[in-house]
Write a structure and sequence with these properties.
This protein is of the alpha/beta class and 451 residues long. Helices cover 36% and strands 22% of the residues. The chain contains 15 helices and 18 strands. Strands 1, 2, 3, 4, 5, 15, 16, 17 and 18 form a 9-stranded mixed beta sheet that branches. Helix 2 runs parallel beside helix 3 and helix 12 crosses helix 14. It is globular and about 70 Å long.
């Protein structure tokens, strides 16, 4: 792989010191960041990317996305959580064929790349057969995105004689097949994790089986906590078994008591906030502020493609401004006036969308910041567009003013996936038609089954 020199941009490193090089050069060699400095003199460069007028930043990490719903965009925009669970999991999901999962994951991943996301945590809980699982993995690989594929399980209504999904652990044999045959390496572009039910959505025996499987295979295991608990003291019991740790991730978790939250944080558990869906569906206050008070990192994700935008500019902005609002309201209630100073900075919100998201995925040693030795997962934003120029604070510009239209170039593992504002994937128009046809057929079959 030839060397690529990104020259003359404003480099937002997201390293431990929060360095910004303006201007700065960055050298990519063999898919990794080889060097960066205010100026690099490099011989034998295969390509020079002129980054003048560009912000050079680590690609976003979307820490929670149900990519399989891409063909159903917009249908859940006005749904409550009860309507979503009934229509999506007990209804629409049951009409997906493997090819529907493939085209949804492919086009969903392309959309992430187009918007500057280079790492996707794909929470796949509509894979009733090995063919569905393989289709999801194939699509992620073919897109060129970096992804943590979280192997989950469907949630249909049980038929007569069947157990409820809460009583069924992840299929060990199938997970082992995927680990052995499809995603055996933790260094690949697509890696394996688990999307488990956890104590909020399963009985304790299932919790034990799933948590033990994650520990045995050395995999990240993520779960939703968005309503009441099937096992109210489930986390306490799992902690007593020594099954908590940095590899465990909890999504939402708005309802956790202070004691539960402290227990999980002290055991290294990571958390993912999806503020927009939590506000829509009545989960309660996003956990952002309580995590910050405990000094715990926050990762963020877009959640459901069927309801809202999945670009990380929107996700970071919504999460930041939601927490600022809550802090302001708390201050007004307590003191009769807003805070003397802003409570959460733009720089912190950008961490949620980059290095802290990488930490959630167990990839912070590989991605999430622009430092020598890490993978060259990089996004270049064109600052010359109306509405963004002039850039007086590049971090503030990224979080509060930029959007997907500013994403000029995207690189994953040193491979350019978007250039001059255009995705380099083949047959995108044909693939878009396939996505639309897939979504239309699923909706038609679902509505027919309801009549």
């Amino acid at each position: 792989m030839s060397r690529i020199l990104i020259k003359g941009g404003t480099i937002v490193t997201m390293d431990e010191k929060g360095r910004i090089l303006a201007p700065g050069d960055l050298l990519v060699e063999r898919g990794r960041i080889a060097a960066l400095a205010p100026r690099l003199e490099v011989e034998e460069v295969g390509e020079v990317i002129d980054a003048a007028g560009m912000i050079v930043m680590p690609g976003f990490v979307n820490a929670h996305l149900h990519t399989w719903q891409t063909g159903l965009r917009g249908i859940a925009a006005d749904w409550t959580i009860k309507e979503y669970l009934r229509a999506m999991h007990a209804g629409l999901a049951t009409h997906f064929r493997p090819q529907d999962i493939y085209i949804a994951n492919l086009m969903g991943a392309h959309a992430q790349l187009n918007a500057g996301t280079t790492t996707l945590v794909d929470w796949c809980h509509n894979n009733p057969t090995p063919e569905h699982t393989d289709a999801a993995i194939d699509a992620l690989r073919n897109s060129g995105i970096r992804a943590l594929f979280l192997h989950g399980s469907p949630k249909p209504d049980p038929k007569t004689g069947q157990r409820h999904f809460s009583e069924i652990p992840l299929p060990r044999a199938e997970v082992e097949r995927v680990r052995r045959e499809r995603l055996s390496s933790d260094d690949g572009l697509v890696t394996l994790g688990l999307a488990i039910l956890g104590p909020g959505m399963s009985v304790h025996e299932v919790c034990l089986a799933d948590f033990r499987l994650a520990r045995e295979l050395g995999l990240v295991a993520s779960m939703h906590v968005s309503g009441g608990f099937m096992v109210p003291d489930g986390f306490e019991r799992l902690a007593a078994e020594g099954l908590l740790g940095r590899h465990i991730n909890v999504v939402h978790a708005n309802i956790l008591s202070d004691e539960q939250l402290s227990l999980l944080v002290s055991n290294g558990v990571s958390f993912t906030v999806t503020a927009e869906v939590e506000m829509q569906m009545g989960f309660g206050r996003p956990l952002t502020g309580r995590l910050r008070a405990l000094g715990a990192p926050v990762s963020i994700g877009s959640d459901i493609e069927s309801a809202m935008s999945s670009d990380m500019f929107t996700v970071a902005r919504m999460t930041l401004q939601c927490q600022r609002l809550l802090d302001n309201l708390d201050a007004i209630a307590a003191m009769g006036a807003g805070p003397e100073a802003i409570t959460v900075s733009s720089a912190e919100a950008l961490r949620w969308a980059t290095i802290d998201g990488a930490r959630m995925a167990g990839m912070d040693h590989r991605v999430g910041s622009l430092v020598p030795g890490k993978a060259a997962d990089i996004a270049l934003l064109d600052t010359r567009a109306h509405g963004l120029y002039p850039v007086n604070d590049p971090v503030a510009s990224i979080v509060l003013q930029a959007g997907p239209a500013n994403v000029d170039t995207v690189m994953v593992d040193g491979v350019v996936r978007k250039r001059a504002g255009r995705l380099l994937a083949a047959d995108l128009d044909r693939r878009a038609d396939e996505l639309a046809a897939s979504g239309a057929r699923i909706l038609t079959e679902f509505r027919g089954a309801q009549s």
